[in-house]
Amino acid sequence: MRLYPDLPHPRRRTFARDAAVVLVILTCAALGLWVHHSVDRLGRLGHGVKLAGQTVQTGFQSAGDAAQGIPLVGGLVSDALHRAGAGSGGAVAAEGSAGESSAHRSAWILGALVWLLPSATALAIALPGRLRQVRLMREAETALTEGPAGARIRLLATRAALTLPAEALLRHTPDPIADLDDGRYAPLVAAALDDLGLRGPPRRAQ
Questions:
Q1: Boundaries of domain holding 26
Q2: Beta-carbon contacts of residue 43 (< 8 Å; ≥ 6 apart)
Q3: What stretches in the chain show pLDDT beneath 50?
């Protein structure tokens, strides 16, 4: 499959457009990674809060375990200390864990959005025209293999006469519509190939 024109200037222009799209995608990917890492660092705060809460909870639990040995009221004191640990340190640890998870999740979402949204926009702008260019080059090459009287040659000449700018046609023929009506396809085919940046035509089309 042909991806690039033959002629140097159209080839360089097409390559530059492709390179620009690739550069946009790579730049957005780098920015997305930077955003991901930056937001993901916020998870360290949640991790620190979780560790602090766990430390407090462990302290209360240790005190509660030690209180078990107190005569008569040891059980009550132990239960109270365990509940206090769960209500204070445990709650703090849970909040820290939730914050850590939220930061990691937000990092992935924001990083992906920074990468995918601009990249998708660039592809939506560039890809349809690029695919059309490849299709037209393929159709032009296929038409030339049919010979000067082939249906695809007539289609190529008709498309050139009806869609190309006047200045592009006038470089090859003074009256493109008359050429089309009279079946003189060679100048119209030459104009079509020139517009696509292809060499040719290798055969004369009548």
A1: 1-130
A2: 99, 100, 101, 103, 104, 107
A3: 201-206
